[in-house]
# Entry
Amino acid sequence: MAVIGGGLAGMSTALRLAERGVVVVLLEAGYCGWAASSRNAGYLSNELAGEAEKLRALYGSKLRNLTQYAENSAHFTEGLIGKLGIDCDYEATGNIKAALNPAQLKRLRHNAEILRDAGADIEFGDGADLGLPSTFLGGIFIRGGGLMNPGKFTAGIRSTLLGSSARVFERTTALSVEANGSRVSVKVPGGHVDAERVVLATNANTRDLTAGPSNVAPVFTSVVETEPVDPGQLEAIGWTSRAGIVTPHQILENYRRTPRGTLLFGTRRLRGAPAALGAREPDRAVVNDLINGFHQRFPSLNYLGAERAWGGWVAMTSFLPVAGESEKNVFYAISCNGHGLAQSPYIGTLLADHLAGDEMHDDLKTLWRPNPPKVPAALLNTALFEAAWAFDRVTDRFRI
Ligand SMILES: Cc1cc2nc3c(=O)[nH]c(=O)nc-3n(C[C@H](O)[C@H](O)[C@H](O)COP(=O)(O)OP(=O)(O)OC[C@H]3O[C@@H](n4cnc5c(N)ncnc54)[C@H](O)[C@@H]3O)c2cc1C
# Structure
């Protein structure tokens, strides 16, 4: 068996296959974990991407299964941290979707009802009850999940993988994938890998492959970290919760505390990828806008310097992580839409169990498709993201 891509999805697939006694090779273009898996904001979330109301409109009664799947993902990945003994500063804080104005609060209250009907373990509360900084009025506390250091987590998975029977080839790009009857041939620089089955866990790069799902759009998302903050300053604005905070904008903002005593904030503005992915550093305009946003939300903390900024490519489908068999013996697992920290290890493991001969798990059945649902490219380009950003600023200004 061959796995292409050594992020959390690919590493978890290869690790489980090795545990199940399957001979497995993993090919990674860079260094295992170097892409989105280690460069994210560390929210281990049991939430799906997208607003509950939109998800219900798109997926109807399936929302209950999807909610269960997302919940199971967070439990699974929490368990994995414990099972492998990975020190990744994990705190089971839960996460909060928090409103900045009355209109957002009303929407969140409505979404909380939808989520509760779908079986989510949530609670609606006001800002003070939830320990939110005073800039937020209140919101949905999502009990499961929490926050971690994704770099440490990914490094822990990598070292477990390297200690397993899986054969890992880093700095080895899969150049093409060709399914021919009962075998799949993967071309790599200077040779090829001939496998019975191949798993594509290539996230944002999936679009560039010669095989696999075509409906995957790469989107660049960014994060900024401040210098350490005096905890007294956080208490002064009511920020007592350690849960991760996200806003319900069209393009979300996220704010969290870290065990280093710094604050991390991100997203707000996205970039599409018309051609090759290339960039690994965030756009300066995006970083400046994130800092401006932080100053607006937390005026009393605007003395804090931004120490670093980073970003990475995520893969967007239709709000959902997806997995399937895109052609005979070519499987894929793309835990995308910016929510893969909990979901990638879970999907990778479920897929490996299925490939090792188990009946397909119900959660995997929920996601399984020959191709991700098509998202029109026009919806995922920088111009449209800029329009969404402008719309969010209007809703901020007029509190609508
Ligand atoms: C800035 C940022 C913040 C985020 N915040 C969060 C968060 O707080 N919570 C959350 O749940 N999610 C978050 N995400 C999303 C999350 O990180 C991803 O959903 C998840 O890491 C996806 O894992 P993956 O294994 O599918 O992909 P990746 O980690 O991107 O791994 C894919 C791997 O495939 C390799 N590859 C691609 N093509 C080839 C090829 N042809 N040959 C060989 N190798 C190849 C790449 O080099 C890469 O290592 C964030 C992402 C970013 C960028």
Summary: The chain has one domain: 2-398. The two ends are 52 Å apart (CA to CA).
